[in-house]
Amino acid sequence: MGRRNSTNVPDFILMGLTDSEEVWLVLFHLFLLIYLVTVLGNTGMILIIRLDLQLHTPMYFFLSHLSFLDLSYSSVITPKTLENLIASTKHISFGGCFARMYFFMLLCATKCFLLSAMAYDRYVAICNPLQYPVIMSPFLCRCLITASYLIGVFDSCITVLAIYTLHFCNSNVIHHFFCDIIPILTLSCTDTHEFLIFILAGSTLVVSLITIGVSYASILSTILKINSTSGKQRAFSTCASHLLGVTIFYGTMIFTCLKPRSSYSLGKDQVASVFYTIVIPMLNPLIYSLRIKEVKKAVIRFLKKKESIIHVR
Predict the structure, then answer these.
(1) pLDDT at residue 298 tops 70
(2) CA 167, 172, 178, 184 torsion: positive or negative?
(3) CA 79, CA 83: separation in Å to the nearest integer?
């Protein structure tokens, strides 16, 4: 608590994305619309997967957790962002700031390893299709999910504790719309734990990317050995949605996270942060539901069942 006194105030100030009040209103309505679509899309995806027995497979088990993570970390960031866009004061307490940082990092780190587990699932499905039901057993799926969450908890605990022990003597004004790592580090007058923080963040991204890369290298090798064009297309279609989601998510994460605080760019980094904190959680349900035939069929079955119930009444 003594370190807080170095800023002479009990909280941070989130400056947001712009100083223009006209732009605030536009961004408020835009972000509110995106958030509503995010909530409806991810909640709908979870419900459809839970209610449709034909979707009780490892791939959709992972996909339901992906939707839960997207919904959760969007809910950690977006409501406070919306509040700041229309509020006269943009203060956030130290506790609130670090709590949001902790949950956001926990969910993002968990998502990284969940995407790795999904890549391994696609590897087994394409490279070892006959052994797929045996290898991707319910027990292994639960273990992979549990391990992803545990790694996320460990990573976020160490990182947030390291940041919390820094001295914030430069300023209490965060030039960002949420409590992200690099904007917080720029306020610190010490860099004691900066190397540790970047090692943790970097190792999370690198280890998960290596797992995904190895899985897709094996998948590509297997697809190239398939003689028929239709066979190659079917094999590729089973992992196209996941590959697209991975590319979008990791592209923005690497751009914003794996850089020293001295190279922090206010405009570019804020745009990238908006993309992976607010936009991507909305895109994932669209990417997976539109490209996976089973999801579209499940939606049709659900709507037909609901329609038949209405007719019976």
Answers:
(1) no
(2) negative
(3) 6
